[in-house]
Amino acid sequence: MKAESPSQVAFSVLDLAAVAQDNTPADTFRNSLDLAQNVEKLGYTRFWLSEHHNMAGVASSAPPVLIGYIAGGTSTLRVGSGGIMLPNHAPLVVAEQLGTLASLYPGRIDLGLGRAPGTDQTTARAIRGARFGVEQDFPRDIQQLQTYFSAANSTSSVRAIPGEGLDIPIYILGSSTDSAYLAAAMGLPYAFASHFAPGQLFAALKIYRQNFRPSATLAEPYVITCVNVIAADTDDEADYLSTTLKQMMLGVVTGQRQLMQPPVKDMSQLWSPDVAQYVMQMLAASFIGSPATLQEDLGAFLAQTQANEIMATSHIFSHEARVHSYELLAETMRVLGQPQAVEQLAA
User: Fold this and answer.
1) What is the C-alpha to C-alpha distance for residues 231 and 210, in angstroms, rounded to an integer?
2) Crossing angle (nearest 10°) for helices 91-104 and 63-72
């Protein structure tokens, strides 16, 4: 298969704002800002923050607040939501919040939208209140957002001030083929959550590209693939660091979530072979290793997916090791952009 030049592939960050053992959310936010400032210098395109609720180990329950914090501490990096879970929020409120951010940081704010609650049903009920039983219409809510952002809405009885007339890119997030059909029909860029749900990645990308309809905002399909990246100077060190990610996914599978745990030397003491197999299936789109290993594995993945952009999340216990992982990823992407690397991928 002939590959596009990886030099054309943007690389970005998804930050889950994980709270490490013995740390507080305040520590997490400071580390997030430090990471954003570092990746900005390294040439990363964007820095997205997710929305989760009622999780002790995840502090990203208010993406618009964190977006403002990160954007205020950087100067060129695009900052956005990966994503705002639209069923939890009235479209007008989202339009006003993102409109405020885009007014403060023009040309730098992205709006990634998801249809999941980002939490359990009991918590979703608490978030939505009386709206909980109302049938959700994700496509309609996105169209409502687009209306609020449009200059043509200036004569409406309900307007988003600020927000109206601003260029705030909307991205559809998804982990299934349903979202692929929607992003294609609406002519919007598509970000796939292969970092935890890789099973339908290739089917979803095929559906999105085959069914894409050009829109006023996007002439051709644009794909972001989100993956796990744990990079270190050696494969052994990366494997060791990756046990923090594996423990996190173990907590997701068993329902026993906890604060981000330090790495361990032997995962066999923490999970059974069956659970290990299930977790590793969920982590199939993970790139763990030294720069040489990353170049080979990530290069093959880019050739297979033909992604326009790769978004890396790095669930690493040590903040310094996480920053270094993103440094090594940036180096890897630059190496993959060299002509000789393209020739090898295309062979």
Assistant:
1) 34
2) 10
Which helix or strand (DSSP H or E) is residue 326 part of? helix 319-336
Output DSSP code: residue 271. S
Q: How far apart are the first and last CA of the chain?
A: 7
Measured from the Cβ of residue 236, the count of other Cβ atoms closer than 10 Å reads 11
Percent of the chain that is helix, strand, coil (3-state, to 5): 50, 15, 35
> How far apart are alpha carbons 346 and 328 in whole angstroms?
23
Pairing type for strands 286-289 and 46-49 reads unpaired
Residue 44 vs residues 132, 156, 311, 317: alpha-carbon distances, Å: 38, 39, 9, 21
Domain 6-346 has CATH 3.30.870.10: no
How far from 179 is each of 143, 171, 332, CA to CA, in Å?
A: 15, 11, 30
Q: State the pTM of this model.
A: 0.92
Alpha-carbon distance 51 to 63, whole Å? 6
> Could you write out the DSSP letters of every residue in 87-138?
GGS-HHHHHHHHHHHHHHSTT-EEEEEESS-SS-HHHHHHHHGGGTTSPP-H
The answer to whether 208 touches 183, Cβ cutoff 8 Å, is yes
State which H helix or E strand residue 340 sits in: helix 339-346
CB neighbour class for 295 (10 Å; exposed up to 12, middle 13-18, buried from 19): buried
What are the C-alpha distances in Å from 45 to residues 41, 88, 194, 205, 297?
Answer: 10, 28, 19, 21, 22
Which H or E run includes 329? helix 319-336
- Domain-wise residue ranges, the chain: 6-346
Q: What is the pLDDT of residues 28-85, one digit of tens each?
A: 999 999 999 999 999 999 999 999 888 889 999 999 999 999 999 999 999 999 989 9
